[in-house]
Amino acid sequence: MMAPLFSSKLLLVLLFGTLFGLVLGVLPGLGPTTGGALILPFTMTLDPLSAIVLLTSIYCAGTYGGAITAVLINTPGTPAAAATCLDGYPLAQKGEAGRALGMATVSSTVGGIFSVVVLVFFAPILANLAYEFGQPEYFALAIFGLTMLASIGDGSPIKNLIAGAFGILISTVGKDFMTSIDRFTYGINELSVGIGFIPVVVGLFAISEMLTQSTLLKQVFKRVALKAIKLPSKEDYKKTWKTILRSSGIGSFIGVLPAEGGTVASLIGYSEAKRFSKNPEEFGKGSVEGIAGAEAANNAATGGAMVPTLALGIPGSATTAVILTGLIIHGVRPGPDLFKEQPEFLYGIFGAMLVANILFFIFGFFGAKIFARITLVPNKILWPMIFAVSVCGTYSLSQSIIDVWIMLFFGVLGFFMRRYGFSVVPVIIGLILGELVEGTLRQSIVIFDGNWLMFLTRPIALTFFILSLIALAFPLIRSKKNKKPYD
Amino acid sequence: MNNVRYKKRANKSLPFFFRTEFKVFFIIILVSTILLISTFSFDTVPPILNRGIQPATFPKGLLVLIIALTSIIYYLSFKKPWKKEKNLPKPFFFTILSFFIFIIISKTLDFFLAISVLSVFVSYHWGERRTFYLLLVSIIFPLIVFIFFEMILGLRFPPGIITNLYYY
């Protein structure tokens, strides 16, 4: 598994990715998704394996990095670290920032490594199952992936569905891939090749975040001083080992579900840690179990989310949507054939994720104090620099100024979407899955000779449709249970 | 209790067309309808060559779905009005303005000049007054980015009054 990594170039990429991921994770508003989107154009200079190793190491380290800011300034560096704030910051306020970060580092590492094991075992099984899939099954699976956004995704279920449908709509811009007929091009030549992933991804994540930061300039962070990270004591280990293992399992499972990721995993991991705890009253006041529950779960979601991404080509989270974009632009088509034809490529990714988890443990343990200082870089200097990188990165891909304008358009759109409760993640997932959804639908209709009801004669497709209905009904049932309006 | 809070949040005293829910609903429906109308002008495939559905059918279906879902969220907003957002601060509008300036300068004068102008403009309006840092974001950093892309990645930037000095 590790053999492909024994090259100085890949190790260098892995080191850089882990360090860069930590920096991104620490900076509120950036995180592995935005960071991955920013670095995506630069990966074009790398071979496919190095590019994906870079993105996955950013993913692993960035997810952990969010905990440093969550503990020290009570602001999650990444959304997945939101639950870590609940107990991390109160513990830091008691003068135990080192203990809080030590627990976060250990549980993140265990969760991350656990999820890589899940990835190694389950991705090939899922890929083998996918051999049974024909066009109708892939269509049903893609629909299931999109409806999952509605059930437990970030934000309102219907708004998420609208955003997902919008993402698919963007994928229809350009020449129709079956008939070469122009759609939504309005005579603009540049649009006939379609709207690229990178301008949309960078716009929706980086530029919209820049606009969000422009509204938060008066925000003042109270920073807790950190002397050094402490490894958890024997007592802490005794108290938390079950929580860490449970959250690792929960995180990996949530990660495997299409379209879900670390944010949901950490919230469920945290609430389950509280439910099973002997001292639930300590939660919210600086409980190490709370930190362990949230951190093990969000890092465990990283490997879990890579399972559907690699085995089926359905992203398991926002960051894996960016990684999937990376795979596509490098000409690697995820799915069962990838497991059969390029096993060394996959083992390289698995190995890289394993090493990245160990590396962020080392860097986090010895360098958290330095990484914490990165939060002192003022936004008024940081974001103009990020803008310069975003513009050049987006331009570099097809050397088209139109791409830069598309990026700016999606940046403004993304800002207003977030402001009014529409998550931008479904747009990306819809954009990625768009071609799959339309292609498999149209080919299925050809196979079925125009008879739509034939979908129901395919057991696997039918199962996915039923799961999709459950995914759609879930928020309704949940809102009835909580006696709150559906949306 | 919750309902009282929702009413407060939504500022129900405003006429319906000033409420956020209506504005969002209106914009989505308007754009979707325009796009839907435009799908009727897509070329069609002759029946003998047509495999499955026409190229316009899928986007039409998506747009109808978006319109239907948007109508549902608007209807639901009567039961649970949206939270009233804070007014956007000045730096936000300056940032948006800087995007327009960027587009104009990059199209007419120079791509890198546009990046420099945007950087200094944003940084200044976000509160930076120290000359060194303004120079850092407007000249030093874009220069580093240029060198990185041009020399290491071998990218050729669009011609302009500054870029031409380097290229010619």
Q: Topology, please?
A:
The complex is a heterodimer of chains A (487) and B (168).
Chain A: H1 8-26, H2 31-39, H3 48-73, H4 82-130, H5 135-152, H6 157-171, E1 174-175, E2 182-183, H7 197-214, H8 234-256, H9 262-276, H10 288-312, H11 318-329, H12 336-341, H13 343-374, H14 379-398, H15 401-419, H16 425-447, H17 459-481
Antiparallel strand pairs in A: 1-2
Chain B: H1 2-10, H2 20-39, H3 57-79, H4 90-108, H5 111-125, H6 131-152, H7 163-167
Helix pairs in contact in B: 2-3, 4-5, 5-6
Q: Care to describe what's here?
A:
The complex is a heterodimer of chains A (487) and B (168). Chain A is mainly alpha-helical and 487 residues long. Chain A has one domain. Helix content of chain A is 72%, strand content 1%. Chain A has 17 helices and two strands. A two-stranded antiparallel ribbon of chain A has the order 1-2. In chain A, strand 1 and strand 2 form a beta hairpin. Chain A is globular and about 70 Å long. In chain B, 67% of the residues lie in helices and 0% in strands. Chain B folds into two domains: 78 residues; 78 residues, no CATH class. Chain B has 168 residues and is mainly alpha-helical. The radius of gyration of chain B is 25 Å and the shape is flat. Chains A and B meet through helix 6, strand 2, helix 7, helix 14 and helix 15 of A and helix 2, helix 3, helix 4, helix 5 and helix 6 of B.
Low-confidence stretches of chain A: none
Number of strands of chain A: 2
Helix content of chain B: 55-70%
Class from helix and strand fractions of chain A? mainly alpha
Oligomer: heterodimer
Q: Roughly how many Å apart are the termini of chain A? A: 46 Å
Roughly what percent helix of chain A?
over 70%
Radius of gyration of chain B: 25 Å
Average pLDDT metric of chain A = 87
Strand order of the largest sheet of chain A: 1-2
Number of helices of chain B: 7
**Largest sheet properties of chain B:** none
Summarize the structure.
The complex is a heterodimer of chains A (487) and B (168). With 487 residues, chain A is mainly alpha-helical. Chain A is 72% helix and 1% strand.
